[in-house]
Specification:
The protein has 325 residues and is mostly helical. The protein has helices at residues 18-29, 33-42, 49-63, 66-206, 218-226, 240-253, 255-263, 269-279, 284-291, 295-310, 318-323, and strands spanning 7-8, 11-12. A two-stranded antiparallel ribbon has the order 1-2. A hairpin with a 2-residue loop joins strand 1 (7-8) and strand 2. Mean pLDDT is 81; it is low at 208-215.
């Protein structure tokens, strides 16, 4: 027993007093009733009253002691009631402890959840602040960049407009100079035309045409051919008689021109007509309408006559060379 660990300083550990109940049953088994009663009585007053009463009832049954059996039966019931009461109390305590534990656990979980929510809210606020900070920085940067870009664009537009203004001023000056030159040129042409008209008037006053039936003034003949310069105004072309009248007028008033053209065998009838019309001041477009041909054909004819008469390839110089005659 000393080495069993049930005893400390030769005293049994209170929690292990159930050992006496077991030893009492052993003593009953070997027929030592008094020893068994001794060990069962050691349990009385401890937390093992029920086992003590139960063991003593077994002893007194063997001794046939009815009074003791009745006594310890009542004590056994009372001990059982105490055990049940303690069990219920312990159950209540355990239930309460379990409830308190669950409640504390729920409170702990709720507190943890609140902490998590609070932490999440803090993280969310920090994230929002960071995002807002980044957005503000980006907005300021983009605004400055946009302002720089806008300033550069405005400076570029200013440079372009300034260059365009300078070019416009230069162009205006050139136009003004050109207009002056054009006006001077037109004035010179007008003086030359007036001079030639005056010469023609003097010649007309001193000459009559050979055929009295077709005597017309210079203005009448030119007006007659001018009618054929209006596109779609008349579907007909000048008649042969009108061409002859024009040729007679050229021979009368411009004998050098008529002589030059008529003496050249390589000058065709079409080229002869073109030269007369050019000499009288008709434009290329008007000649095209009168002859009912194309601009290219008239230009080719002018170039051909210029090459034959003046040994030049340019069609534009024909009028100038004819005017010198």
């Amino acid at each position: 027993e000393n080495k069993s660990g049930l005893f400390v300083d030769e005293r049994i550990v209170p929690e292990r007093m159930h050992y006496y109940y077991t030893k009492g049953l052993y003593q009953i088994g070997i027929g030592k009733i008094d020893a068994a009663e001794y060990y069962f009585r050691k349990l009385l007053g401890s937390s093992f009253d029920y086992e003590a009463c139960k063991g003593l009832i077994s002893v007194y049954r063997l001794k046939m002691d009815i009074d003791s059996i009745s006594k310890y039966s009542l004590l056994s019931e009372k001990a059982m009631d105490d055990i049940l009461s303690r069990s219920q109390a312990e159950a209540v305590i355990q239930a309460k402890s379990l409830y308190d534990y669950n409640r504390m656990r729920r409170l702990a979980d709720a507190s943890k959840l609140r902490e998590q929510k609070t932490l999440f809210a803090v993280y969310l606020i920090i994230s929002v602040v960071i995002v807002l900070g980044i957005y503000v920085v980006w907005y300021i940067w983009s605004t400055k960049k946009r302002n720089r870009t806008e300033k550069e664009r405005m400076r570029h537009i200013y440079v372009l407009l300034n260059n365009e203004l300078s070019e416009s001023k230069t162009e205006l000056e050139n136009i003004r100079k050109g207009c002056i030159s054009i006006v001077e040129m037109k004035e010179q042409e007008l003086e030359e035309l007036q001079k030639r008209v005056k010469e023609l008037e003097e010649q007309l006053q001193g000459n009559k045409w050979a055929n009295g039936d077709f005597v017309r003034t210079y203005e009448d003949i030119v007006s007659c051919f001018k009618r054929y310069t209006i596109p779609n105004a008349s579907k007909s072309s000048p008649t042969k008689s009108e061409w002859n009248t024009l040729s007679d007028m050229v021979r009368t008033f411009f004998p050098k021109l008529h002589s030059l053209l008529s003496q050249r065998k390589d000058i065709s009838e079409q080229e002869f007509k073109v030269c007369m019309l050019i000499y009288l001041g008709f434009k290329t477009g008007e000649i095209t309408t009168i002859l009912d041909t194309s601009m290219q054909s008239v230009s080719n004819t002018k170039a051909s006559v210029s090459r034959k008469l003046f040994n030049e390839k340019s069609a534009a110089s024909l009028y100038r060379n004819l005017s010198k005659m």
